[in-house]
Specification:
Structural class: alpha+beta
Shape: elongated
Largest sheet: 7 strands, mixed
Distance between the termini: 121 Å
Low-confidence stretches: 16-50, 612-633, 644-654, 663-735
Number of helices: 16
Mean pLDDT: 75
Radius of gyration: 47 Å
Helix content: 10-25%
Number of domains: 6
Number of strands: 43
Length: 735
């Protein structure tokens, strides 16, 4: 910065002063004199800080007689180390030279130091002696009258946004239309000066004379507030507490405001469980008036008491309030304490452990109760549930295994829980290559596990006794007697070659729900293979099964080269001919997610030999299966028995354990042994060795006979025919 070597200089210093203690301190003016000339500049007011430490920014004006004095002052400021402690409570943290004013031919010039500049208003008012750039200048032709000094450039260049309301009076309404057109075609940003830009112009309100009065209408996306609509009178409909037109010009200069989107309202249904020792609490809850405002955004609109549970002489009772009911299965599971009407009851004899409560009689679709017949009153034995629990035990001492094997069973845990036996199936331990998992006696690994993790002994009878890793999915060895192991695939030895990268092939079944049948054609038109990543490739896609609604429910048809197995055809009913032990269509969607199998790759089991019995003279006639010299109802009998036992929880007939295990057995074997002697042999052994021969009372057969006669099983023959042959079967194999 070029300045004359002689003359009177005025320098503005900016000090940051920190007062460490708040005593008797107030704003002040610091004056430094190097000559008799006197120049004063006001102090910049202190800033409030809500701590025990106060920061002050102080403008100091210094006058110097010549340039040497100024240069000495600049050197002194630049070489001083900060902060500078003045006393125990005050220190100067920074000193900056912001402005230097010196005489010129026209009077004075005031130049800014680095990182400081004059604002646009000062440049225009006092005249800039250099170029205006970005709305600021570095030099002005006068000393400001108000004692201002140069400001930090970073502060001056910070944009400030203003919303300005402009009221325009015109005598012709067409001018408003022309203004709209002009605004639609105007540039996005309108520059009014080097540092002023107009970014948006919106017409909000148009007021005009309508007869003898004025009307003020809002433009699109703008509305009058509800107060203005009421005070000045709405000239259109009030919607959502706003209107678009009022019958007067607001006296306070208000105008239309931007239309705000209505707040999103979320509605929640919350179930609350309340434990109370005083029944008066229930009456208190009923007496509360709703809605109740929790906060300005949360409102409780209503409260309905659905269920009240309280102690009774036998334990607990849970009663439903008005308009609420228990479903039929809940009534049967926990025992009704009032009448079951319309497939519901109003009271049960226990608290549901899963937290369920009464459901709305109007909104809930209750499932129908199964048909039942009255039975003689008997003393019900306690229900016994049997669980098979797998436990994984981490131990550092192999002696733990021997200790577990030496424990005598059964062990009583509580008066209702008994551990009847313990079998160690799998033992895993570190080996030189990682881990080995060996099966204990009577347990084996399946063939696929042997191949996946590598066998560490011989594979015999489609199983192995040891694998070379711990399965990540928690699987363990299975019982060699009870588990049906899948056969190993045939393998042939191949000459030793350079091992290519390992390629794993997966067959993935995907269930797709679609409302448009064109999706099937679209899937068929895709070209394969498709690369998902550099290591994953979809090689092909085969549609196996298509299920769609029919007049009787659903039909599931197989695509080309796919078929349903014979047992699926019998269980769900074929809707085409059964050929080669398969069918191409069944009359329901299998609930276990099964689908059609490949006719080329899948080994379908042969259908049982069936002969049609002569139709007896009876009101109900149907077909039955004759297996050699034995009679057995159709497969539908077992399907319905399975569904019935699963639905009613088995608590009405004999012990629940019998039906539970029979249900598991029938579900496990998939009914494919019906017409072989092995079926009867295995069922007989199963019943004889799983404790259920203890419940072969005549009452059991009496109820089973009544159930078979009256719950859909007359399709296997007349009631008398079913009774005769079914009795002969059960007595001949259970005794």
């Amino acid at each position: 910065m070029a300045i004359p070597s002689q003359g009177l200089f005025t320098i503005a210093l900016l000090l940051t002063n920190i007062i460490l203690e708040t005593r008797y301190f107030s704003g002040f003016i610091l004056q430094v004199h190097c000559e008799e000339e006197h120049f004063v500049s006001p102090v910049r007011e202190k800033r409030s800080v809500h701590t025990d430490q106060w920061d002050y920014l102080i403008d100091v004006v210094v006058t110097a007689p010549d340039v040497q004095t100024f240069q000495l002052l600049r050197s002194l400021v630049n070489t001083t180390t900060f902060p500078k402690v003045l006393d125990n409570s005050t220190e100067i943290s920074e000193i900056y030279i912001t402005t230097v004013c010196f005489p010129s031919e026209a009077g004075f010039q005031c130049r800014c130091e680095d990182n400081f500049a004059w604002p646009y208003s000062s440049c225009v008012k006092y005249g800039a002696c250099d170029k205006l750039s970005g709305g600021i200048c570095k030099c002005i032709e006068r000393i400001p009258d108000n004692g201002q000094s140069c400001q930090p450039i970073s502060v001056l260049l910070t944009p400030v946004e203003y919303t300005v309301d402009v009221e325009l009076k015109v005598f012709d309404i067409q001018i408003v239309d022309q203004l709209r057109i002009l605004l639609e075609h105007s540039p996005a940003v309108l520059s009014l000066g080097p540092n002023v830009n107009v970014t948006h112009i919106n017409i909000t309100t148009v007021c005009y004379l309508n007869g003898t009065n004025f009307q003020c209408r809002c433009e699109e996306q703008y509305v009058w507030s509800y107060d203005n609509c009421i005070i000045y009178g709405a000239c259109d409909e009030i919607i959502r507490e706003t209107c678009g037109c009022i019958n007067s010009i607001p006296t306070d200069g208000q105008y239309c405001q931007p239309q705000m989107a209505p707040p999103v309202v979320y509605e929640y249904l919350i179930s609350i469980e309340l434990n109370a020792t005083d029944v008066a609490v229930i009456d208190l809850l009923r007496s509360i008036s709703y809605p109740i405002s929790i906060t300005n955004t949360i409102l409780v609109s209503d409260l309905n008491i659905s269920t009240v549970c309280y102690p009774s002489s036998t334990g607990y009772q849970c009663k439903c309030e008005d308009q609420y009911r228990w479903s039929c299965d809940q009534c049967f599971i926990y025992g009704p304490c009032d009448n079951i009407t319309e497939d519901t009851c109003g009271c049960i004899s226990d608290i549901t452990p899963d937290g369920q409560h009464c459901q709305s009689a109007d909104q809930h679709n209750f499932t129908s109760c199964p048909p039942t017949t009255a039975s003689p009153s008997t003393t019900t034995p306690p229900v016994v549930y049997e669980y098979l629990i797998s436990i994984e035990l981490n131990a550092t001492d192999v002696a733990v295994i021997d200790l577990l094997g030496s424990i005598s069973y059964p062990i009583s845990i509580t008066n209702t829980i008994l551990v009847s036996d313990l079998n160690i199936s799998t033992v895993c331990y570190p080996s030189s290559t990682g881990y080995q998992c060996k099966c204990e006696d009577q347990y084996r690994w399946s063939c696929d596990q042997c191949f996946i993790y590598g066998p560490c002994d011989n594979i015999t009878e489609d199983t192995c006794g040891c694998i070379s890793d711990i399965p990540p999915d928690g699987q363990h060895c299975q019982s060699a007697d009870q588990h049906n192991f899948t056969s190993c695939p045939p393998t042939t030895a191949s000459p030793s070659t350079t091992t290519p990268p390992v390629v794993y092939e997966y067959l993935i079944s995907i269930e797709l729900n679609a409302t448009d049948v064109a999706v099937i054609d679209l899937l068929g038109s895709i070209s394969y293979p498709i690369s998902i990543t550099n290591t994953i490739l979809v090689s092909d896609l085969n549609i196996s099964t298509v299920c769609y609604p029919s007049s009787t429910g659903y039909q599931c048809k197989c695509e080309d080269q796919y078929r349903w197995s014979c047992d699926q055809c019998f269980i769900y009913g074929p809707c085409d001919n059964i050929t080669e032990d398969t069918c191409g269509c069944i009359s329901d969607i299998p609930p276990d997610g099964q689908h059609c199998q490949s006719a080329d790759q899948h080994h379908f089991r042969a259908c049982p030999n069936t002969t049609t019995t002569p139709k007896p003279t009876s009101k109900h006639t149907s077909s039955a299966i004759v297996c050699g010299s034995r009679f057995l109802p159709t497969v539908g009998f077992y399907h319905h028995l399975h569904k019935y036992l699963a639905y009613t929880h088995y608590h009405h007939y004999s012990t629940s354990g019998f039906y539970h295990h029979l249900h598991k057995y029938l579900a496990y074997t998939h009914y494919h042994h019906y017409c072989t002697s092995g079926f009867y042999h295995h069922l007989h052994k199963y019943l004889a060795y799983t404790h259920y021969h203890h419940y072969s009372t005549s009452s059991f057969y009496h109820h089973l006979h009544k159930y078979l006669g009256y719950t859909h099983y007359h399709h296997g023959g007349s009631n008398h025919y079913v009774q005769q042959h079914y009795y002969r079967y059960w007595y001949s194999h259970l005794y």
